[in-house]
From TrEMBL:
Protein name (record): tRNA-uridine aminocarboxypropyltransferase
Entry-linked SMART domains: DTW
Catalytic activity: a uridine in tRNA + S-adenosyl-L-methionine = a 3-[(3S)-3-amino-3-carboxypropyl]uridine in tRNA + S-methyl-5'-thioadenosine + H(+)
E.C. number: 2.5.1.25
Gene that produces this protein: LOC109710831
């Protein structure tokens, strides 16, 4: 890896990471359940078990009507409603009629509740077992997770910031234009969809869904949109933020940026036709391996090449990050912090220094700060005090 100028990672980005790994016991328990499911995924058998609503405290949700295009896109995507999500919701509705019971979400995590949950478990396991193709199993798993999270969050979470409506932080977000030469792709695990402490969502809140686009793992419509954009942009214009996977590890210094200035011609910098595409894997570290594997397989299929270009950020101070999160991780930090780090490092490239990428990084850091404030004040209001140790960690 080439040396890059040192830059301390912004304290507020570390704070949110500290929050993420010092969660209440109930949250940790849910994380453990996610990991178990991920482990099953790697083995080719996706656990079709409980669906959680990730952020905790789902208050019943808004019930099981079909999802309209407007509602779907309101959650942060410009894609059509995924066909399989629609199908799963129809099946849930049909089960309501069959069993003469209503689907209900509640409790910590906003899970399906009561007798309906028992019936639904039986039904979806049967469907899952009937699928012989592993690709179909993944698609079904993803669609069901997303459908249940969506129904369980209806009327409870703010669609834009994915926080309970009473904690909505939207008014604090300051929109900012991302330089046109860059496009982010948030490759998100279904278990992170509508999760309150997810940070990838901040990117499209700040930059808009065209500059920072959600791509849900296992959702065909999303993955096709992303890969179509990659094919159009060309092989040299796609990078994945994921460490140590190349034979020769790469850094931001290795990104060839001439392509985004094709029309320069000695004049002021002008944009080429296609932006640089950066994929950020937005999931727990244990889920990220399966997501990386899927990207790599598609990469090979598209370009006949095993070498999915991964870059590591040099600004993530390994020693500090390691103290905060001793587990292995794909980037040692949260998704939005990784995006801010990337922008900050790109800003240090002389050709890009006038594009105000540092200000765009600051906008992300500021939004992370607001998210941490909202999550912390919610925890306080819910009656859980922050211990001195946590307070210290959150301010490292
Ligand atoms: Zn909001």
């Amino acid at each position: 890896m080439l040396a890059t100028p040192a830059r301390s990672f912004p304290p507020r980005c570390r704070r949110i990471q500290a929050y993420k790994y010092n969660k209440p016991r109930s949250v940790r328990a849910r994380a453990a359940s996610s990991m178990a499911a991920a482990a099953e995924t790697k083995g080719g058998v996706i656990g079709a078990g409980e669906v959680e609503n990730g952020g905790g405290g789902g208050g019943g949700g808004g019930g099981g009507g079909e999802v309209s295009l407007r509602e779907w896109q309101g959650w942060g995507t410009s894609s059509p409603v995924p066909a399989m999500v629609t199908e799963v919701i129809r099946e849930l509705r049909a089960l309501e009629l069959e069993t003469d019971s209503s689907m209900r979400f509640g409790g910590l995590g906003g899970k399906l509740q009561g007798e309906f949950k028992v019936q639904e478990d039986k039904k979806h396991r049967k469907v899952y077992d009937s699928l012989t193709d592993s690709e179909r199993k993944l698609q079904f798993f993803a669609a069901r997770q997303i459908a249940c999270r969506l129904l369980g969050s209806r009327g409870y979470l703010c669609q834009k910031c994915w926080l309970p409506k009473e904690d909505c932080m939207c008014s604090r977000i300051v929109p900012c234009s991302l330089w046109d030469g860059i496009r982010f792709w948030l490759y998100m695990h279904p278990k992170d969809f509508l999760r309150q402490n997810n940070t990838g969502k901040l990117l499209w809140q700040i930059f808009g869904t065209q500059a920072a686009t959600l791509c849900l793992f296992g959702i065909t419509e999303h993955e096709e949109i992303m890969w179509h954009a990659f094919s159009h942009a060309g092989k040299g214009m796609v990078w994945l933020l994921y460490p140590n996977k190349n034979l020769f590890p790469k850094s931001v210094q290795d990104i060839v940026i001439d392509g985004v200035f094709r029309k320069t011609g000695g004049q002021d910098m002008d944009l080429g036709d296609e932006p640089l595409n950066f994929v950020l894997i937005d999931g727990t570290w244990s889920n990220s391996a399966a997501m990386y594997k899927r990207l790599k397989e598609r990469w090979k299929l598209t370009w006949g090449d095993e070498d999915l270009p991964c870059i590591s950020l040099s600004t993530l101070g390994a020693s500090v990050m390691h103290k905060l999160r001793p587990q292995p991780s794909w980037d040692r930090t949260c998704t939005a912090a990784a995006a801010a780090g990337l922008l900050s490092e790109l800003h240090l490239r002389p050709q890009l220094s006038t594009l105000r990428l540092d200000k765009q990084a600051e906008a992300v850091e500021q939004a992370l700060d607001f998210l941490l404030d909202s999550l912390t004040s919610r925890r306080l209001r819910m009656g859980r005090s922050i211990t001195r140790r946590e307070r210290h960690k959150n301010c490292v």
